[in-house]
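Handout, page 2. Input:
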Amino acid sequence: MDEVNDFYITLPSNSSTQFFPKNTQASFRTKLARPIILTGTWEVGLSEIFVPRTWFNIGNHNNKYSITYEETKIIEKDYAEYDIGVKIEQGTADADVIEEINQSIEEKCGHFVAFSLDRKNINVHIAPNYELHLTAANAHGC
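Output:
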C-alpha cells in the first residue's frame, strides 16, 4: 500500500449544516466523507483562511469624523464641533478598529459618543444633545 506523506483538506464552514446546525463562520465542525486515520507523528498547518467580513480600508481620504454637541439653556446655547481623524492600517482586527475610533473620540470630546461591536453589527451610542456626522476627510477640503 502506498504511504501518504502529506495531504490537503478543505473544511468549509457551511458544508455540514445538516449534521451541525449550530455551525457559524467563526466556529464550526465539518463531517468528513470518510475517516482519516493518522498513525505516527504528523504536522498540521493552516495554509489558507478566508474571512468574509472585511473592513473597508480607512485611508487618508476618509479618516475624519465630526461630532457635534449642542445644548440649549434658558439664555445661552453651547456649541462645539470636534474633528476626529483616525488612521487604520489595512488588516487591523475588527475590535481594534472600534477601539482606535473610540480612543480618538474620547481624547477629543470625552465619552459622549462610543462605538461597539457585536457579532453582526457596529453600534453607536450617542449621549443626549450630541450628533455624529461621518464625512470623508476631503469633503471638508482636507
